What we know:
- By secondary structure, the protein is of the alpha+beta class.
- It has a domain of 126 residues: CATH 3.30.1330.60.
- 43% of the residues lie in helices and 13% in strands.
- The chain contains 6 helices and 4 strands; from the N terminus they run H-H-H-E-H-E-H-E-H-E.
- It has a 4-stranded mixed beta sheet with strand order 1-4-2-3, with helices on both faces.
- The chain starts with a helix and ends with a strand.
Amino acid sequence: xxxxxxxxxxxxxxxxxxxxxxxxxxxxxxxxxxxxxxxxxxxxxxxxxxxxxxxxxxxxxxxxxxxxxxxxxxxxxxxxxxxxxxxxxxxxxxxxxxxxxxxxxxxxxxxxxxxxxxxxxxxxxxxxxxxxxxxxxxxxxxxxxxxxxxxxxxxxxxxxxxxxxxxxxxxxxxxxxxxxxx
Length: 182
């Protein structure tokens, strides 16, 4: 019986050893989950909404008269002493002013005539009016409508340079332009 027990033990030991040394099967990763094919949806990008582009005239009409005049869209012209004749250098400025007036067809302007401090008040008021009229006549000759232009003379009452020498007086002998209606 001893023999039988030893044999059984030996068989059990061999079986346990055999099962312990047996190669473990390779673990196979589980297959990926099957996905249902979803219908392809094309991405449609929303159209970019752009602000409407305002025209130059629409921008002009949105501004106040003060804003327009602060921008100084119209140039100033200067005159010789005791003269109301448009100088050659002033023609280019007046041509630019006429082009601006043709671009903004609803604008109306005031042409202001100014003088230096020399001479009487009455004389300078008359000379300032002649200067404003000379500038107005030039603009009319370029095709600007007469109903868009008004003139006024300030004589020597509104100097741009308060000095009392020739350089100050040259700056004060002028016609300047103010937008009065858009």
